[in-house]
Each structure stands twice: as structure tokens, then as C-alpha cells.
């Protein structure tokens, strides 16, 4: 891996507006939110309530933000929240969320109020980027006040429900581009040295340090293991720098880090991490793994209310 300095900014100096502007100028649209996501949401409108919960104004473009909700919403039912595309480049999170709604959501009618937000960061989705237009990571921005409008809009949507959410599954990927592009860019933006790490080959989940629910995390891993392989620990017994507490399971302090999975008071919370660059996984497997994780999480929560 190259150790050359990141091509924007000066080593050791955090970015200012000029560097952010230069970075933004290098981001080009590579796919369509309207074609990939909004069209799928439109097809589902006949079966689910479609809620517009925000509008991103990123000149010259605007991006409406949508959630899909159970049409038979009942106040007495627990809420299951599924979020995807917090990092727009993590493709299977977006398509896995939509695939879950299309193929499996009806099976939970009358048991859960479902709220599915398939693409939290549409500008980043189109540019296959981790950050939003302002070089801010939405998945470190779920705090008040939030520096990212994507995160702020989702928090406003969820706020009235946060005490009623029983299970929250946040769908992510860990990719080779994390080490090749996104972590070097982060180090450059913050004026810090880049310290290379090992990219895990396989699926894993991130639980909450303050609410680990290890049996729940292991149930998700067991379901996904039928679809794709589980990431092994590195030589130090870690995955992305965190100790492995069970096969394929690590913990983060979700609220302290401002992560999406920390926005509710849900009993059962997990962040999925699919590895789409593995020679042992196809795009279809990656989306299927996300769906398996969601259904396993919801099934476990129903069995252990």
C-alpha cells in the first residue's frame, strides 16, 4: 500500500475550506439515487406508507429523504428500525434494506411497526463516498447539534419513537477502499498521520459496549453464516482494532462515537459490516447477508421481548 501523502492538504495540518472545496471538486456522480432508490420506493408505495422526512439542499442538486413505514401501524406494537446508506458508498446496506422491505416486511405485519430508511446519505450514494458534500462523516455525527444534515434529519424522524424502538439494525460495509481512500482522507482532513490497518475478510457485527446483548449478536452471526463467511480475527485477536468478543462480534461505544446505531434506546442494536471486496462474496450475497441479519435480529427480538 502506498505511503505517499494524501493529495489534498499538507501533512500535519487540518483542512480548511479551501481543501474541502478541492476535495468536493473531485467527487463525481457515478450512479443515480433516483433510478436506484427512489424508483424502488415508488414501487413499494402501494404496500407501505412513504414518509418524506427531509430534503438535502446540495446545490445544484436537492435530495428528498424517505422512509418506508408499516401501513398497519399500531401504537401498541414495538418498533423495528432498519437504516441503510448512512455511508453512501456501502451499497449492500441500501439495496439490502430495500430487498428486506420488498421480500420480507409483510411477514412482520401485526408484530412490528417497521420503519425502514434505506438511504440516509443520497449525495454520497451517488458519488460512492463515505462523507457528505461538506466532507463530514454522517456516522460520527449522530449527536446534538449534528454537523451533518443527513444525521440531523434522521434523528428528527426517530426522536418521537426512540423509547419505543425494540430493535435497530444499521446496515454497513467494510471495503478495501476504507484503507485505500477513506481512512487516508480522514487522516489528511484532520491533520493526523495515517496508520494502516487490516481489512477483515468477511461479515461481522458491532454491538454496543454499554448494551452488548451478546446472545442477540451471535444469533445474527449464525443466520448470516448460512449466506456468507464470517470475518476471522487478526493476529492480535481483533477486527478493525477492536477485540473480538465472540466469532464475528466486536463492540463500540455507540452514543459516545455519534454512531447511527446509538440514536434510540432499543434493547437490541447491531451494526452489520459486509465485506463486498472478498473473492468469496458476490453482490447478491452481500445484499442477502444484510437481509439475513435484519430478519434474524427481528426474529430474535420477537422471541425475547
UniProtKB/TrEMBL annotation:
Q: Which residues cross the membrane?
A: none
Recorded hits in InterPro entries, A to Z, give:
AstE_AspA_cat, Peptidase_M14
* Family annotation (Pfam families): AstE_AspA_cat
Q: Which UniProt keywords apply?
A: Hydrolase, Metal-binding, Zinc
Q: Does the keyword Hydrolase apply?
A: yes
Name the needed cofactors. Zn(2+)
Q: Which residues form the Peptidase M14 domain?
A: 29-305
* Keyword Metal-binding found: yes
Q: Which domain of life is it from?
A: Bacteria
Gene Ontology biological process terms from the UniProt entry: proteolysis
Task: Name the Gene Ontology molecular function terms of this record.
Answer: hydrolase activity, acting on ester bonds; metallocarboxypeptidase activity; zinc ion binding
Family classification: Belongs to the peptidase M14 family.
Q: What is the protein name stated in its UniProt record?
A: Peptidase M14 domain-containing protein
Origin organism is: Myxococcus xanthus (strain DK1622)
